[in-house]
Specification:
The structure holds 2 protein chains of 2 kinds. Chain A contains no helices and 11 strands. Chain A is an all-beta fold. In chain A, the strands form 2 sheets. In chain A, strands 2, 4, 5, 9, 10 and 11 form a 6-stranded mixed beta sheet that branches. In chain A, a hairpin with a 4-residue loop joins strand 7 and strand 8. The radius of gyration of chain A is 14 Å and the shape is globular. Helices cover 0% and strands 51% of the residues of chain B. In chain B, the strands form 2 sheets. In chain B, strands 2, 4, 5, 6, 9, 10 and 11 form a 7-stranded mixed beta sheet that branches. In chain B, strands 1-3-8-7 form a 4-stranded antiparallel beta sheet, with no helix packed on it. Classes of the chains: A mainly beta, B mainly beta. At the A-B interface, strand 5 and strand 9 of A face strand 5, strand 9 and strand 10 of B.
């Protein structure tokens, strides 16, 4: 079983829809939770991160962590065609050197 | 400020050939990383360098070697390429230990025939 599971998609939505992207994980030692966005043929870039449980909002994006269920989510409101990309979740323990564990990524397609 | 740069962008090798992927960062970061990205597997850490002068194995180090040439540069070498090493390779850097954002380069697409 992988430490981090993520549905690869693709997830196709119309412009303006609310998008929910999710990851589950098995290692309760993870403390930092990140979402990276990766456009086609580009490197990943950090979108949001949260520490421990709770919600964090940044514009149209909300990251949510439920440590009791080992489940994290990224919500995108009023989705735009420019949001079409692959979204990777990543996690980090709070000990030792920073070695991120990534999900496989979910490909999102937002149609005009 | 170019961030993280990688060369080459594309490469085709025959089985058994060798090559070195180059990575440089201009953000004065202490830590650097090499990942490979394969369909259905996500990003997997090959090697990392926590600070200048140190390197350590990641999740999938077999068939690779690295050199932290100086604080800016971190190279990845394939001594005898195999088709299983066909992948997209990303270099990344971060300020250092603990929580620090990793900045990624644009990637190198490698095909081994």
């Amino acid at each position: 079983q992988k430490e981090v599971e993520q549905d690869p998609g693709p997830l196709s939505v119309p412009e303006g829809a609310i998008v929910s992207l999710n990851c589950t994980y098995s290692n309760s030692a993870f403390q930092y939770f990140m979402w990276y966005r990766q456009y086609s043929r580009k490197g990943p870039e950090l979108l949001m991160y949260t520490y421990s449980s709770g919600n964090k909002e940044d514009g149209r994006f909300t990251a949510q962590v439920d440590k009791s269920s080992k489940y994290i989510s990224l919500f995108i409101r009023d989705s735009q065609p420019s949001d079409s990309a692959t979204y990777l979740c990543a996690m980090l323990m709070n000990t030792g050197f920073q070695k991120l564990v990534f999900g496989t990524g979910t490909r999102l397609l937002v149609s005009p | 400020n170019a961030g993280v740069t990688q060369t080459p962008k594309f490469q085709v090798l025959k089985t058994g050939q060798s090559m070195t992927l180059q990575c440089a960062q201009d953000m004065n970061h202490n830590s650097m990383y090499w990942y490979r990205q394969d369909p259905g597997m996500g990003l997997r850490l090959i090697y990392y360098s926590a600070s200048e002068g140190t390197t350590d194995k990641g999740e999938v180090p077999n068939g690779y070697n690295v050199s932290r040439l100086n604080k800016r540069e971190f190279s990845l070498r394939l001594e005898s390429a195999a088709p299983s090493q066909t992948s997209v390779y990303f270099c990344a850097s971060s300020e250092g230990q603990g929580w620090n954002e990793q900045y990624f380069g644009p990637g190198t697409r490698l095909t081994v025939t």
